[in-house]
Amino acid sequence: MALEGVVTIPSNYGPKETVERLKAGIAEHGLDLFAEIDHARNAKEAALTLPPETVLVFGSAAAGTPLMQANQAAGIDLPLKALVWRDAAGATWIAYNDPVWIAERHGLSAGLRQNADKMRQGLEAIAAKAAGSLQ
Length: 135
Known about the structure:
TATA-Binding Protein
């Protein structure tokens, strides 16, 4: 089921390697990695099970702050996040919110939507390389 504003792509790697490749791409693009949330590990600590599922929270104050200056509610969607998970069939996936969708959701100006488009292009490149669909 497709979700509005969410980009989902398959990865050619397992969840752990996909997460590591995403982290490398985030660093290569000069972005800050703010948090790594391992939902499966957290589930295990609560005596529950969950297939591999990790969220990376990352971004750039220089890119995200202007969006939040225009509409502070954009902070609910920023910084950017990427989710990596393994589904029941064993496939690994990457999902993230489209930055242009974020800008549109918060009614930002055309100029800020151009900034969001640059964010989109960078995120697409990071995700594609992490998934092994771009070398």
